[in-house]
Amino acid sequence: MKAMMKIGLLGGLLGLAGCGGGGGTVDTRPTYSIQLTADRTTLPVNVARIQPNIGGTYTATLYVKAQDNAGNPVPNGENVFSCNIVSGLENGSLYYLDGKAEHEKEEVLGDGTTVKVPIAYRSVTLGASAGVGSFHYHTTDKAGTATIRCAYTDPNGQIRHTAINLTVGGAPSNLPSQVAFHTYVPGYLFVQGFNQPTQANLRLSVVDEAGRPVPQPASGVNNVRVRIVPTSSADETAAISGVNAAGQTIRGKLITLRTDADGLVGFKLDSGQLAGDLVLEAVADRADNDVDNGLQNPVRGYLSVPVLSQLPTTGLAIATDTLPSAQKAIPYAVGLQASGGSPPYNWSIDQHRLPTGLVLTPEGIIHGITYDAVGTYNFVVELRDRLNTRVQKSLNLVLGTSDPVTEVITIGALNPAQATRGTPYTATLVATGGYPPYQWRIVQPSTLPEGLQLTPLGVLSGTPTGAAGPYVFTVEVVDTRGIVGRRAFTLNLQ
To answer: How do residues 179-190 score in pLDDT, each as one tens digit?
Structure first.
């Protein structure tokens, strides 16, 4: 009996210990978890280097969330979450895009006006609202995977973290996304007649978003156009040569070529009689991987080849003093010139000092298409050679416009406005204003005679069939900045 009483007393004491106070107590504090999601985990390669914007093609919105095991959000506050790019693509960036002054910087445009642009970060610190914080990841012109990790220190002092992978490039599209020249040694040529190399064997690759070679086009179809960009330093006697899709050896300032099954094509560059820089431009068509039928969605790549008249034994210097003017909505490319030092060279600049849409490559080419404000843009370029010698120089670029650009797109009349059943019909729609090139489509609901269709280039064609009578339809045109124009047409079918 006494033994039973002792056991009962011990059980009671253990029960009391489990309810509170002493050692062996059960931790009833809530536990916490963290989640990281994105509105999309696959983004295209940003070949055109479009600036970040919420909901934009190249910008993903990420959401980091923390809550307890009962589903209650963590308290609101500042500096709740810490997020950063931990591996993968090194050239993508994180942005707040919240409009706060501390997350933006001021830039002076060519016309003297001041604008604010978002600052790029490798890591960000976020506040929590209803347990959630948000930020953004923006792509560049490189394909790959970026791993982003977020951490949260819960009220128990435990660090909770999670990560997400964003794929830049996504599934292969088999359409051109990048045109890249391969590097070559020594990276420069000499003028003709000099007892040093005057010809370079060059290669370039055409790849899609995933970095995979585009398929070889059909027999007889060229999918790359290479030219020597006409600049102040381009010698008229310089030329490029290669074999086109028809098997012909062609030579000149502009040639068309066909890549092989690996997305590669080779050609030759011969220097001219004068020293300077030769800027090469390679263009593929993202619309159909065919440059013989025109350029609908061009993708460009550039290479600058210095042509020397003496061995580089002098001190490193930037030889470019002035730059040719650029024009709105017109592709621009110019090579910066270096002298002396020990090639190959590497160029750099604060890209935000250039008009939006223009970039400076490490090879010293300023290129792109800009719609920025007209005016003069001042910046400092830095040149570095193989021995890491560095020099800087102030330059300026004047941006103008040869034709007045209007923010309104006007669509011309349908010509002809009459078609005959069973007879081929073609009409090319014409638009003015905005920022070409344009993309065309039919707005639904619309009625077109059966057998007719509108191409993205604005060509209405086919052999119409069906009942005679008037057909009413509306077309829409969109320019490179998203400006939209619409017009209704009536096509009479006899």
So the answer is: 888 866 677 889
